[in-house]
Write a structure and sequence with these properties.
Number of helices: 5
Structural class: alpha/beta
Distance between the termini: 34 Å
Radius of gyration: 18 Å
Strand order of the largest sheet: 1-2-6-5-7-8-9-12
Order of helices and strands: EEEEEHEHHEHEEEEEEEH
Oligomer: single chain
Strand content: 15-25%
Number of strands: 14
Length: about 270
C-alpha cells in the first residue's frame, strides 16, 4: 500500500490486490495489472481516519478473489482526512450540495483527477461514504461526460441527499442505516434533498420530495448509525445477522458488484 500526494489534490491511498506491481513515470504510484473490467474506488467523507475502509477493502478483495477477479481497490479522501481542517471540509461539502447554481464540486474534481490518471478508458464503481457519496456521483457524471470512463455505478452509503438526474438514477444505489423499528438511524441522510417541483394530473404544481431520488434506495438494519457501516468488531455485531461490515458488503455485492463483475452466465 502506497501513499501519493499529487499537486493541488488531497492525498489518497492506493490499495491493490495483485502480486505483480510496476512503477509508472516519475510519480511514485504503485499499481497492479488487473483482469477485472471494473475499477473500484472507496471515497471517504469529511474528517475520516485513514483506516476507515481497512476492513472493507479486505472483505471486497476476498470476495473478488473468490470469484476469480484481481481488482484494484483504491481509497480516496476527496475532502481530506482527520488531519485536515474539519470545518473547511464541511464547508466544501455544503458548497458541493448547492442547488441554486452549479455546485463547486471540490470533492468531484479531486476524485476525477485521480481517476483520469488511473482508470481512463475503464468502467468504474464508486462507493462513497457520507460526503464521499456526494463527490462520487458528481465525479462519475463529470468523467462520463468527458468520455474518460466507459461506464459507472455509484453506491452512496450514509450520504446527504443529492439530486440525481433521471437519466442516471438507475446507476445510483443509496444505502441508509435504520434501527430495529425501521426508523432512520443515520442523521447525515436527513441532510440535503431529492425534491423538485412537479405538476399533478389536475395541472397543479406541488413539491415532490422524491423527484430526483436514486432508483435504488436500500435501508440496512444495523447496530449504530452513521459512523458504523464498516465496523466488524463488537458492539457492532448482531447475534444473528452478523457485523455491520458484513451486512453492508453483502448488500453492495448482491445488489451491484456481483452482477457487473461476474459473467452473465454466473449470475443466478
Amino acid at each position: 500500500m502506497t501513499t501519493y500526494s499529487p499537486p493541488h489534490t488531497n492525498r489518497y491511498t492506493a490499495v491493490q490486490s495483485a502480486s505483480a506491481f510496476r512503477q509508472q513515470g516519475g510519480d511514485d504510484i504503485m499499481y497492479a495489472d488487473v483482469t477485472s473490467e471494473w475499477d473500484v474506488y472507496l471515497l471517504a467523507g469529511v474528517g475520516s481516519r485513514r483506516t476507515i475502509f481497512s476492513e472493507c477493502v479486505k472483505e471486497l478483495q476476498h470476495r473478488l478473489t473468490d470469484n476469480g477477479k484481481i481488482s484494484a481497490i483504491r481509497e480516496l479522501f476527496p475532502y481530506g482526512d482527520h488531519t485536515h481542517n474539519f470545518f473547511q471540509q464541511l464547508l466544501q461539502v455544503r458548497k458541493d450540495l448547492y442547488r441554486l447554481r452549479r455546485a463547486v464540486q471540490f470533492g468531484a474534481r479531486a476524485v476525477a483527477a485521480q481517476v483520469r490518471k488511473l482508470s481512463a478508458g475503464r468502467p468504474v464503481i464508486f462507493i462513497g461514504h457520507s460526503g464521499g457519496g456526494v463527490a462520487a456521483y458528481q465525479a462519475a457524471v463529470l468523467l462520463s461526460e468527458e468520455g474518460c470512463i466507459t461506464d459507472w455505478r455509484v453506491i452512496q452509503v450514509g450520504s446527504p441527499k443529492l439530486p440525481i438526474q433521471r437519466e442516471h438514477n438507475h446507476k445510483v444505489h443509496y444505502v441508509v442505516a435504520v434501527n430495529e423499528d425501521g426508523e432512520c438511524a443515520d442523521y447525515i441522510t436527513r441532510l440535503g434533498s431529492w425534491g423538485g417541483i412537479c405538476r399533478n394530473r389536475f395541472g397543479m404544481w406541488y413539491w415532490n420530495r422524491s423527484k430526483y431520488a436514486p432508483k435504488h434506495i436500500i435501508p440496512l438494519t444495523l447496530v449504530g448509525g452513521h459512523q458504523h457501516y464498516f465496523r466488524r468488531e463488537a458492539p457492532y455485531v448482531h447475534p444473528e445477522r452478523g457485523s455491520n461490515l458484513v451486512i453492508t458488503i453483502d448488500t453492495i455485492w448482491d445488489r451491484v458488484l456481483r452482477e457487473i463483475c461476474l459473467p452473465a452466465s454466473h449470475v443466478i
